[in-house]
Each structure stands twice: as C-alpha cells, then as structure tokens.
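dumping this here so i dont lose it
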C-alpha cells in the first residue's frame, strides 16, 4: 500500500481548506490596509514623496508617505475582489465549460523593402 492509497479521499477537501486559509489571511490584512488608508500622510521636510525607494525608506522611518496610502487603496480593492471570488465558491460540479474564444484574425504579412542609408 503506497502513501496515496493509505488515505483515500484525503485531498478531496483541500480546496475548501485553502479557501478558508486565504480568507483568514485576508481578515488579518484588512485592518492594516484600513489603517494605512485612513491615517493622514506624513512625510519629513525635504523628502521625496514620489519614488518608491523613498517611500519605502520613509515607511521604515515610521512616516507614512502618500504612495503608501495610494497602494493601500488599490490593495483594498484587490482584497475585496479576492474575498468576493472566494466567498462565491468554485463552479458547480458538472457546470458547462466556458465557451470557446472566437477565432482570431488572420495575420497579414507586409513586405518591407529596406533602403540603403547614405
């Protein structure tokens, strides 16, 4: 008896376990993103507020640059979409396969003559 035969059906619930794990991780990330979005931006005088390197350095100093707030807003949207997709669940067993994509256009070949340079 091999390792796979010892526990038949052991992997049957892995999708549900993974979904629960990811939803738990999203629950931990939400408060951090919310705090970053709601706190006012703070940047030291004379510091660059545009480039990502300066934003990371400012975050390490305890400041909260505007870039971090913008990234938190976008990450919150991504987390919301991911959460909605995970809470909906996967497709029902026996569901119809997605339709085949429409065939793409034919490639048109264009002959280009190169001219000698002066």
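and the seq i came up w/
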């Amino acid at each position: 008896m091999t390792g796979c035969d010892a526990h038949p059906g052991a992997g049957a619930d892995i999708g549900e376990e993974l979904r629960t794990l990811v939803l738990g991780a999203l629950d931990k990330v939400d408060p951090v993103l919310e705090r970053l979005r709601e706190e006012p931006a703070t940047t030291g005088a004379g510091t660059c507020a545009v480039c990502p390197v300066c934003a990371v350095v400012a975050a390490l100093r305890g400041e909260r640059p505007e870039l971090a707030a913008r990234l938190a807003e976008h990450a919150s949207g991504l987390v919301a979409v991911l959460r909605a997709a995970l809470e909906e669940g996967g497709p029902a067993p026996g569901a119809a396969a997605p339709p085949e994509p429409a065939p793409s256009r034919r490639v048109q070949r264009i002959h280009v003559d190169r001219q000698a340079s002066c």
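Helices lie at 3-6, 14-38, 52-60, 66-88.
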